[in-house]
UniProtKB/TrEMBL annotation:
UniProt name for this protein: DUF2254 domain-containing protein
Organism: Arthrobacter cryoconiti
Superkingdom, taxonomy of origin: Bacteria
Keywords in alphabetical order: Membrane, Transmembrane, Transmembrane helix
Pfam family, one: DUF2254
Lineage of producing organism: Bacteria, Bacillati, Actinomycetota, Actinomycetes, Micrococcales
């Protein structure tokens, strides 16, 4: 999917209003069209069908529609209030960065859409009810009133299901699982398993040009196709030094341009086209997203673990559970091709180099803060070392053995300086020693 389209889809997905707004528009249209259908088919319906429809007069129809509209707008206000309270709770208990997960919840979107569309439909149908006068026999849209009644019943069921859903969503295990699922999808999308990781990225020449950012914000995604096209058109090589998730600042360089042919000079016009093309292919936002930012999910999970390990919360069990999800994601990274990505032209010449986090970056991101805040707790310390052990086991070719060993040595220093009982220290240091000296696993 194109980076611009993917960014728009993600922006819409993480907003509360698109689905409810679409439902209200549909309800307004249906509330206008259905009474017109009532006037056409009302007298032609078979008795078995008409017996199921609303059979009251204009006053009864108005009373029903007014009751439905009034109750649904009250329930909608209650639902909004509960959603806001949930967002506040998630922000304070877990991390402000997990709010995107709650706001993107489709169940909440659909529930709000059901309540608001029922309210809009009832109000719209109410306009078509006419009382009997001397020249007008009156009109009651029986099908429309019946549908409004069914929407009210569905809203009652929806409220019960919404409350049940809300109690499940605010659990730490649910939050962690949803973040882990999103992160896994981002990893699979940006680190395909069949990617050629052996391709070496060329080194920038001494006369390379720096490309300054035209905007300020978080780098959310890069249009790889657009970058490749502009690089080929100008016979240049470009490297985006910033990774998705990094903060760009207007006027500060974030990319580098050079040529492979020392005899080819990039002129002022060509340089301007490259500057414009690169800035147009880079998308920023006010917050990080999961479109191409593979480290964002790790950041969210680590934030939850760090909050759980804070003295004010003191919940090491949640931190241990977080490390289980992080371990699963890191083991998946081992099977993929993390790190810098190279895009080539039709002749196989590298034209675009994209900076992406490697295994060492992700290991440090995932373990640095939990190691800092949690090594004093034996259960957390043992789980952190188990993460390295599990990643080492999945690294059957030994490709990342040096990175795992470096993290194990940091763990060892933290254990030695920590306030552990002698028995606990001996057990933890034994794990550190095994990770530091073990030969990497070999495929059979």
């Amino acid at each position: 999917m194109n980076a611009r389209v993917a960014g728009l889809v993600d922006a819409v997905r993480t907003q509360l209003w698109p689905i409810p707004l679409a439902a209200v528009i549909l309800a307004l249209g249906l509330g206008t069209a259905l009474p017109a259908l009532d006037t056409v088919v009302d007298t032609d319906l078979p008795e078995s069908v008409s017996g199921l429809l609303f059979s009251g007069g204009p006053d009864a129809a108005r009373a029903v529609l007014q009751a439905i509209a009034g109750s649904l707008i009250t329930v909608t206000s209650l639902t909004f209030s509960l959603t806001v309270v949930t967002l506040q709770l998630a922000s304070s208990q877990f991390s402000p960065r997990v709010l995107r997960t709650f706001v993107a919840d489709r169940f909440v979107h659909i529930t709000l859409a059901l309540f608001m569309s029922g309210f809009a439909f009832a109000l719209t149908v109410l306009r078509s009810v006419r009382s009997e006068t001397g020249s007008d026999p009156g009109f009651v849209p029986e099908i429309s009133v019946t549908l409004a009644f069914l929407l009210a019943i569905a809203s009652i069921l929806g409220l019960v299901l919404f409350l049940a859903h809300l109690t499940r969503e605010i659990r730490a295990e649910t939050v962690m699982q949803r973040v882990a699922d999103e992160t896994l999808a981002t990893l699979n999308r940006n680190f395909p398993a069949d990617d050629d990781a052996s391709r070496q990225a060329p080194t920038p020449r001494h006369d390379a040009f720096q490309v300054e950012s035209a905007v300020t914000g978080f780098l959310t995604s890069v249009d790889r196709g657009a970058l490749l096209r502009v690089a080929i058109a100008e016979q240049a090589v470009l490297r985006v030094n910033a990774q998705p998730g990094d903060s760009l600042v207007n006027g500060v360089p974030f990319a580098t341009i050079w040529t492979l042919d020392p005899n080819h000079i990039i002129g002022p016009e060509s340089l301007q086209r490259l500057n414009d093309g690169i800035n147009n292919a880079v998308f920023t936002g006010s917050e990080r997203t999961n479109v191409q930012d593979v480290a964002f999910g790790f950041r969210q999970l680590v934030d939850v673990a760090a909050r759980a390990l804070s003295p004010g919360v003191n919940d090491p069990t949640t931190a241990v559970h977080v490390m289980g999800h992080i371990s699963g994601l890191l083991c998946r990274v081992v099977e993929l091709s993390p790190g810098t990505k190279c895009l080539c032209d039709d002749q196989g010449v590298v034209r675009v180099i994209l900076s992406m986090p490697g295994m060492a970056d992700l290991l440090d991101l995932a373990l640095a803060q939990p190691r800092l805040y949690g090594m004093g707790d034996p259960a957390v310390a043992k789980r952190l070392l188990s993460v390295l052990e599990e990643v080492s086991w999945c690294d059957r070719t030994g490709l990342y053995h040096a990175e795992i060993r470096a993290q194990a040595q940091k763990m060892g220093m933290a254990v030695e300086t920590g306030n552990h009982l002698q028995e606990e220290r001996t057990e933890l240091l034994a794990l550190v020693h095994r990770l530091s000296t073990n030969e990497p696993h070999r495929s059979p």
